[in-house]
Design goal:
580 residues; alpha/beta; ten-stranded mixed β-sheet; five-stranded parallel β-sheet; 27 strands; 30% helix; globular
Length: 580
């Protein structure tokens, strides 16, 4: 066996030995340390032990089965409350169902499409979503709602209710399920059973539901947890409809028995007091979070915090400056995706000759042990003072074969930019398929490669090291969200005065991701102001999906086959903005 294959086999065996099934890991935590805090929910000052999380979610699971949930049926979750999301997630799995989270920013067409595409057994939600569900109630196939009603004094208490749509849906109180006295369901699950349907942006059509098996979660979190210990505390303010919040943090914690500090959303003004409250040593910072934290006036106490391991995605050019200011000893980076999981990883030692985190606040393995673990795992470890190539992602996950492909799926040599593709060395590591979309599944898996849709290159000067170059096709990355150009164009074009729309990405004003620009062609004879169009967009689209730049054009440039020449539109706008 070649050394590369032998090492991959060793890593795979270690990963599988640690356990593929997240429910088994929760049960093991209950056996080892039942009273240790698992979820520290800062929004309402709630601390639930591993035993309490299991007990609560098991009762909910029994309630779902009593309602009639069958194994393999999806249950959708639409709530901003991360604690409710987490308990629902475990309950759905325990009941034999499939966790299908919904982006809580969706409304109108985006919301009705996903719910109808999933066709869930039930939707778990709360009264704050009564208005947006009422808007689309007559378009939904959905029949059942499980409604969590916050208690008076809870941070998300509201006067809204589902009273005005009570005749449209079968409504079951969350509290009724939570009081179930039936035994917890005992439904066998395998590593290859589908655990989740997580939706990702479609570039030429509606969003696609990614079917993830249970092993996908083990594979996704394995590289991250291999550099932590049970003493680490994970901080999560990412939404649980994304893999980063749900699986890189909340479920990842179960393999080692970590506590998770859990909040509903990021707050630049409360971030550090939250870190202090839960004592977090690990966090994920996505794009604009970093400049928001850096925009605060520097203080002598900036390093007086417990964070010593921070994942930055994408890796900003000023990562060393950020780490030096806040005392982040190690910064990790890489490549993550709903379909393929964690494909690359790199580790940056930001204090090569010392320690940024005060010794009294340190959690997790010490720096020497951390570096030794990087070496054993063949994790690329670099000096934070070095200048890294733009888009640096480190080395490939050993469990995945990597290729950079041209348009005909031929491999490209180092230094050439092409589409990143993965091929799993072992079963169950990547998506099963796109839900109800066999043609899209065949296309993305053509020639036995999973095509990521991202432009990447292997560095000519450092073979085996990879850098992200750009997104291929029609999607953007905006404030941590994948945004489909197709969906932006469909929603803008639904305005009765709009004939056609083209959406393109431009460099963001803040951070390293994208802003959205739309070019709008009106129906002949119609008049529409930018303000009117923005008001329409505000009514139809989540905030992150709304265009930063709006330009009206007499006609969109097209090819001889009537394909819009977006590159021409983008080039002209970049010149106008002085970014060309």
């Amino acid at each position: 066996m070649a050394p590369e294959a032998e090492f991959a086999q060793q890593v795979f065996e270690q990963m599988v030995e640690q356990g593929d099934l997240v429910l088994d890991k929760l049960d093991a935590c209950v056996q080892r340390h039942p009273d240790k805090t698992y979820l520290h929910y800062g929004e309402d000052g709630v601390r639930l032990s591993f035993a309490e999380v299991k007990a609560r979610s098991d009762r909910l699971a029994a309630g779902l089965v009593a309602m009639g949930l069958k194994p393999g049926e999806p249950v959708s979750v639409l709530t901003r409350n991360s604690l409710v999301s987490a308990l629902a997630m475990f309950a759905i799995w325990r009941a034999g169902g499939v966790f299908a989270p919904v982006n809580f920013n969706f409304r109108g067409q985006l919301l009705s499409y996903q719910l109808n595409d999933t066709a869930p057994f039930a939707l778990i939600t709360d009264p704050s979503f009564a208005p947006v569900l009422a808007e689309v109630a007559d378009k939904l196939k959905l029949q059942r709602l499980v409604v969590h009603t916050p208690k008076p004094g809870d941070h998300d208490d509201t006067e809204l209710s589902f009273d005005h749509v009570a005749q449209r849906f079968e409504i079951v109180p969350w509290e009724q399920l939570a009081q179930s006295d039936a035994a917890a369901p005992d439904i066998p699950r395998t590593p290859f059973d589908v655990a989740n349907i997580v939706y990702t942006s479609g570039t030429t059509g509606p969003s696609k539901g990614v079917l993830q098996p249970f092993r996908w979660m083990n594979h996704y979190s394995y590289p991250q947890r291999s550099l932590t210990s049970a003493d680490d505390i994970l901080y999560c303010d990412l939404p649980l409809y994304h893999v980063g919040g749900a699986f890189a943090l909340v479920t990842r914690a179960l393999w080692l028995g970590n506590t998770v500090g859990l909040w509903d959303k990021f707050s630049p003004t409360k971030f550090w007091e939250r870190i202090a409250e839960c004592g977090a040593s690990c966090a994920i910072l996505l794009d604009v979070m970093i400049p928001w934290l850096m925009s605060a006036a520097p203080r002598e106490s900036d390093r007086a915090n417990t964070l010593n391991k921070v994942h930055m995605q994408p890796l900003p050019a000023n990562h060393h400056e950020v780490a030096q200011r806040f005392g982040f000893d190690f910064v990790t980076c890489g490549f993550g995706q709903t379909e393929s999981g964690s494909g690359f990883a790199g580790v940056i030692d930001q204090f090569i000759d010392g320690q940024g985190t005060p010794p009294a606040l340190w959690r997790g393995m010490d720096k020497a042990a951390y570096r030794a673990n990087c070496q054993r795992a063949d994790r690329m470890l670099v000096d934070g003072r070095e200048t890294l190539p733009k888009g640096f992602m480190g080395r490939a996950n050993p469990l995945l074969e990597v290729a950079i492909l041209d348009e005909d799926d031929n491999r490209l040599p180092p230094g050439r930019v092409g589409q990143l593709a993965f091929r799993p060395r072992f079963p169950g590591l990547l998506l099963h398929a796109y839900f109800n979309k066999p043609e899209a599944t065949l296309k993305v898996l053509r020639n036995c490669w999973f095509h990521t849709g991202d432009a990447v290159k292997e560095l000519a000067e450092q073979p085996g090291v990879y850098a992200f170059v750009d997104r291929m096709g029609g999607f953007f990355r905006v404030r941590g969200e994948n945004v489909s150009s197709y969906e932006v164009e469909v929603l803008i074009s639904s305005h009765p005065k709009v004939r056609a729309t083209a959406a393109v990405p431009v460099p963001a004003k803040v951070g390293d991701e994208d802003d959205i620009a739309v070019f709008v062609q009106l129906i002949e004879g119609e008049l529409l102001s930018e303000g009117e169009l923005r008001a329409y967009a505000a009514d139809k689209m989540p905030k992150y999906m709304r265009p930063t730049h709006v330009r009206f054009v007499e006609a969109l440039p097209v090819t001889a086959t009537n394909k819009i020449e977006k590159y021409k539109l983008k080039k002209g706008l970049l010149e106008e903005l002085g970014l060309a």
